[in-house]
Structures are given as structure tokens and as C-alpha cells.
């Protein structure tokens, strides 16, 4: 997979891809991340990338020309499966979306800022708009990192067996059951007997029951 990330603040996204599992995915060549600083496509001496909105509302709007130049340049080099705009107006990210994106080859993530991008960029280039939840961030960069993380960890070879994505919360629309490790007893707090029993079918049943119980308590909406 290749992800091209367009942003005015690419430095905000460097460390996640230089650390731990995402770094290993990059080092193994399972994913390529390419940052594109929109400022390099800015207009004039001041490399302008935003301007006041027509109609006179508050805030600034990211201009069409730098964005169109940047995206068109990328598109001239390869075919992209999706051009994704990170915006609070988008569809809320969930596991199903991450699963679908993880099957694709080439993605562009465009990080929004200010009051958003000129509508014509959306009409011309954007194929998907994604939000990471109902709250507002200073820009799309952290959301782009969240989206990239959720997708990259699903690529074959990224996780090892113990970290397997198949038993994640949400992968089967259930939250995860509680987990325990040694010691079996700590200050009078005991690990549930069944987990020490060695009876794997009983353990499976117990874990499933706990997952249902927790999901019913915390996220009944997932059981609909
Ligand atoms: Cl994608 N961008 C911004 N600025 N805020 C958000 C978001 C995205 N998703 C949730 N809040």
C-alpha cells in the first residue's frame, strides 16, 4: 500500500510512522508513506494557500489552485483508489471502513485546515470524506494518523500472531472481554477460575459471554 498525505503541517505526522508497529510496517516495505507539504504549491511570493471566503463568513478557506496542482501532480503519476478528505463533516470512521481501505493499493489523504477547502476541490477530486468522531480538531493531521494506523495494522504481515487483528474489539461488533496475566492472585484479587482451568472450549464460551455482557452494558447499539 502507498499513502500520499497532503498537509500544511506534515511535521505533525512524522513520529507515528517512525515508532513501533507502524515503523516496522514501513521498514518491511508493507506500506509507503509520502508527505506533501501544501506550502510548496502555494501561490506567489508568500506561497499563499488560503484566502477569505466568498460571502463574507468568518475564517479562511483553503484555495483550489494549490490543492488542484498538488493532487493533479500525484494523479499524473499513478491511479489512486480513493482521494480521502479528512474533515469533521465526513463519514465517521469505523472498523468496516478501515477494513475496506486496507484492501486498496494507492490512497491520498488530504488534511483540512481552517474553515475547510474550496468546494470545487471536493467536486473535482475527493472520493471519500472521513471524520474520526463528533468533536473538532485543529486540523486533519491527527485524524489522518488515526486513519492510517487503523488501516496499516490490517495489512498482511504487519501484526504478528499475538497481536492478531481478528480478535479485536469491533472486528465482530463486540467489545473485548477482560484479560489477565500473572500473578493468579494479587492482594486478594483473583483471576477468574475458568481461565486457569485449561478447558479451552469452556474458556471460549466464557470469553464470548463476557464480551456480550460488556457490549450490552457499554455499547448496546452494537448489538442491534
Ligand atoms: Cl478529520 N478533522 C478535524 N479538523 N476535526 C475532526 C476530524 C477531522 N474528525 C473529527 N474531528
Automatic annotation (TrEMBL):
Keyword Nuclease: no
Residue ranges of domain tRNA methyltransferase TRMD/TRM10-type in the record: 1-224
A biological process from GO: methylation
Residues that bind S-adenosyl-L-methionine: 112, 132-137
Compartments, record wording: Cytoplasm
Enzyme kind, highest EC tier: transferase
Pfam family of the protein (one): tRNA_m1G_MT
EC number: 2.1.1.228
Catalytic activity: guanosine(37) in tRNA + S-adenosyl-L-methionine = N(1)-methylguanosine(37) in tRNA + S-adenosyl-L-homocysteine + H(+)
Assigned keywords, A-Z: Cytoplasm, Methyltransferase, S-adenosyl-L-methionine, Transferase, tRNA processing
HAMAP family in the cross-refs: TrmD (MF_00605)
PANTHER family: TRNA (GUANINE-N(1)-)-METHYLTRANSFERASE
Subunit structure and binding partners: Homodimer.
Function of the protein: Specifically methylates guanosine-37 in various tRNAs.
Protein name, UniProt field: tRNA (guanine-N(1)-)-methyltransferase
Amino acid at each position: 500500500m502507498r499513502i500520499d498525505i497532503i498537509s500544511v503541517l506534515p511535521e505533525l505526522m512524522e513520529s507515528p510512522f517512525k515508532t513501533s508497529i507502524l515503523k516496522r510496517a514501513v521498514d518491511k516495505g508493507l506500506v509507503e508513506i509520502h508527505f506533501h507539504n501544501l506550502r510548496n504549491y502555494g501561490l506567489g511570493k508568500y506561497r499563499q494557500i488560503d484566502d477569505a471566503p466568498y460571502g463574507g463568513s468568518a475564517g479562511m478557506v483553503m484555495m483550489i489552485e494549490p490543492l488542484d496542482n498538488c493532487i493533479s501532480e500525484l494523479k499524473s503519476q499513478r491511479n489512486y483508489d480513493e482521494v480521502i478528505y479528512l474533515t469533521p463533516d465526513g463519514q465517521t470512521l469505523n472498523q468496516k471502513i478501515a477494513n475496506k481501505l486496507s484492501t486498496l493499493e494507492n490512497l491520498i489523504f488530504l488534511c483540512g485546515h481552517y474553515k475547510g477547502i474550496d468546494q470545487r476541490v471536493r467536486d473535482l477530486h475527493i472520493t471519500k470524506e472521513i471524520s474520526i468522531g463528533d468533536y473538532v480538531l485543529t486540523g486533519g493531521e491527527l485524524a489522518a494518523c488515526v486513519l492510517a494506523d487503523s488501516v496499516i495494522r490490517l495489512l498482511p504481515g504487519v501484526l504478528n500472531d499475538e497481536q492478531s487483528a481478528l480478535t479485536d474489539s469491533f472486528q465482530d461488533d463486540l467489545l473485548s472481554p477482560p484479560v489477565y496475566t500473572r500473578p493468579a492472585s494479587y492482594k486478594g484479587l483473583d483471576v477468574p477460575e475458568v481461565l486457569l482451568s485449561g478447558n479451552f472450549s469452556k474458556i471460549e464460551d466464557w470469553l464470548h459471554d463476557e464480551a456480550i455482557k460488556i457490549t450490552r452494558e457499554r455499547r448496546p447499539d452494537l448489538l442491534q
